[in-house]
Amino acid sequence: MPKTIPMIITNEYILIRKKDSEEFTTFTMPGLDEACNIPFYHQFAKKISECEYYFKQFIKKEYGKKYSKSVLAIITPDDTSPLEAIFINEFFLNSGACKAVCQMTMGQALSKNHSKYISISKSTRNIILQYIHNNEVCAKKYYDCNNYDIKSIFEDAKRLHIDIEYAGVPVFVNNFNLNMDEFFEMGTVITPKDFLDKIADIDVEKA
Fold this sequence. Notes:
By secondary structure, this protein is α/β, with parallel strands linked by helices. It is about 25% helix and about 30% strand. The protein is built from 4 helices and 10 strands, in the order βββαβαββββαββα.
């Protein structure tokens, strides 16, 4: 089985698990122009060859000679669009830093012990509610992160999908980016350490 390298695309940078360790190291690409409400990795497209090269060198330095035989298990923000997901897959695969990629959202990685749950998170653009069932996103709702009503989100979480209208399911608040204080009372808070612990031992089958 190829070695799986867990990787998290956060709101600001990329975290990659270190070789033979459960700790993570940070990859950032210098010289990118920040844009409000636009994920940083969109800037990779403007310097795609350069960014792919630097990412490959980063992985090569961390994982040594066999880096290209690995599979990147990429964890993306919950509001990643289908087109963004395609770009992410193609970018990292074409970088030559791995033999394959697989992808899932942060919300799908919040619990390994529950077949059904609600996740809530905040990206650079949105508040995102998701209903997860057997690791699949079965329902999703977005709110503009600059214009939302907390009470409405609380109520929407109770009826996001017909499966949960009459049967309570756990709610997990993804506080990985330390930006969810006002939602803590909704459910179980997942801290950055909690999340990294869950991701550190991810494998291809789970991804």
